[in-house]
Write a structure and sequence with these properties.
Length: 181
């Protein structure tokens, strides 16, 4: 069986108990998200609970990957060291932040490309990848564009403009109009 992502419980934290049952199917990996289903996106991920699942699986070949509230490469390494997970998934922290996966501290002066060049390239790659599909629509790309601009002044107005785009060419025009490229 291939790996599966699980939460630490529905409304009660039961990761260790679930892990025992899941291990009976001999999965290659288990990805464990540190919040219950009832928590959804609220509250903090419980890495102690993830660590308890790691202990349960320690005598098996199953990999345990942790997920939840990891905002940097350094934090991921800290989770591996502290809780014994075999790896860490970074989720929402990557939205609009492609540098989250690097071990270096990235600043505006050390970026090889500015974030808006990356956003435009993302839009261009999206179009190049999916435009041949008869059902192609640029709409899914818009939310990503919003994440790229979330930290800048006038982000609200720029997002409004970006959320109306239908092509990378329009995205480029907006970025140029606002002095971002």
């Amino acid at each position: 069986m291939f790996g599966k992502k699980w939460r630490i419980g529905f409304d009660t934290k039961i990761a260790a108990e679930w892990t025992k049952i899941i291990l009976e199917t001999e999965p290659v990996a288990i990805v464990l998200h540190g919040r219950t289903l009832a928590q959804a996106y609220g509250g903090l991920a419980d890495w102690e609970e993830i660590g308890a699942a790691v202990q349960v699986a320690s005598s098996t070949p199953t990999l345990i990957l942790g997920n939840g509230d990891v905002h940097s490469y350094a934090e991921a390494l800290e989770k591996v060291a502290r809780y014994g997970v075999d790896g860490v998934l970074i989720g929402r922290a990557a939205f609009g932040n492609p540098y989250v996966f690097t071990s270096e501290t990235i600043t505006a002066t050390t970026q090889t490309k500015n974030i808006f060049e990356i956003a435009l390239e993302h839009a261009q790659l999206f179009e190049a990848t999916f435009a041949a599909d008869p059902r192609y629509n640029f709409l899914p790309m818009r939310k990503h564009l919003g994440w790229y601009v979330k930290e800048i002044p006038e982000a609200r107005q720029i997002r409004i403009e970006l959320f109306q785009t239908t092509t990378p060419k329009e995205v480029k025009a907006i970025f140029q109009q606002h002095g971002m490229l």
